[in-house]
């Protein structure tokens, strides 16, 4: 501005600025601002009902952004994110099958935690695993413990859970809780592997994962993969 504004002009500018500030505080900002603070990608899904929800928003075939969302009235507010995440090496699917290398899409409850280390703050059932712990997968039947944590010493076979890199901290995603053989098993939220690949799980950098687990605490939480 090359000229000095009049007193009337200055007063008008001040009132305009104050009105804009009040509207922003009241939540009447731009649509872009509203979208940035709400988990709009999950709010229309009637299956999402938990007090907290982890939104896994697919970005490419094998990558996603994770947002941590808390319910506030009828809305879900983004508490934090995005956090970088990895998906199955063959992408995602709504028709998961054992061994397909894909992450199941949908809404699932987050269940118990486990790891080679102690609970970092998830504040729910936690199993500190040993070399004896496995997750029964493959060709096992429901009667043989398919899609559950078991012990090798008790005659069970499956994926070893004693993996200090990806399973230092991990949480079970409640997929295929009917334990239907062949529908897929061992779907977890865990730390990134050395290769940055998963066979169907959702993985994050360890520091981000710990933040997410602490954020969950003891609150019932769902994960929305879409």
Task: Summarize the structure in words.
This protein has helices at residues 7-25, 31-37, 206-216; strands spanning 52-58, 63-72, 75-86, 92-93, 103-104, 106-115, 126-128, 133-135, 149-151, 159-160, 170-173, 188-191, 202-204, 221-225. It is built from three helices and 14 strands. Residues 1-6 and 9-31 have low confidence and may be disordered. The protein is an alpha/beta fold and 226 residues long. It starts with 6 loop residues before the first helix and ends with a strand. Strands 1-2-3-13-12-11-6-14 form an eight-stranded mixed beta barrel. A three-stranded antiparallel sheet has the order 9-8-10, with no helix packed on it. A two-stranded parallel ribbon has the order 4-5.
Relevant terms:
single chain; 226 residues; alpha/beta; eight-stranded mixed beta barrel; three-stranded antiparallel beta sheet; 3 helices; 31% strand; globular; disordered N terminus
What topology, given as strand order, has the largest sheet? 1-2-3-13-12-11-6-14
- In total, the number of strands is 14
**C-alpha-based Rg, rounded:** 22 Å
Spans of at least 5 consecutive residues whose pLDDT stays below 50 are 1-6, 9-31
Distance N to C terminus: 49 Å
Largest sheet: 8 strands, mixed, barrel
Query: Can you write the helix and strand succession as a string?
Result: HHEEEEEEEEEEEEEHE
In terms of DSSP E residues, the strand content is 25-35%
List the total number of helices: 3
Let me know the average pLDDT: 89
The assigned structural class equals alpha/beta
Fraction of residues in H or I helices: 10-25%
Shape: globular
């Amino acid at each position: 501005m090359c000229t000095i504004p009049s007193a009337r002009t200055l007063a008008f500018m001040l009132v305009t600025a104050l009105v804009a500030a009040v509207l922003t505080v009241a939540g009447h900002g731009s649509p872009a601002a509203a979208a940035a603070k709400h988990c709009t990608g999950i709010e229309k899904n009637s299956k999402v009902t938990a007090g907290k929800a982890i939104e896994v928003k697919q970005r490419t075939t094998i990558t996603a952004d994770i947002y941590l969302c808390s319910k506030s009235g009828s809305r879900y507010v983004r508490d934090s994110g995005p956090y970088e995440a990895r998906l199955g090496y063959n992408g995602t699917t709504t028709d998961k099958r054992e061994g397909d290398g894909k992450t199941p899409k949908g809404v699932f409850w987050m269940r118990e935690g486990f790891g080679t280390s102690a609970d970092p703050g998830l504040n729910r059932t936690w199993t500190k695993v040993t070399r004896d712990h496995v997750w029964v997968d493959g060709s096992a039947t429901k009667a043989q413990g398919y899609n559950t944590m078991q012990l090798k010493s008790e005659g069970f076979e499956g994926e070893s859970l004693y993996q200090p890199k990806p399973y230092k901290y991990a949480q079970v995603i409640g997929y295929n809780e009917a334990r239907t053989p062949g529908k897929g098993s061992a779907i977890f939220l865990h730390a990134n592997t050395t290769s940055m690949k998963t066979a169907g799980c959702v993985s994050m950098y360890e520091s981000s994962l710990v933040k997410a687990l602490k954020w969950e605490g003891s609150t019932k939480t769902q994960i929305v993969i879409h």
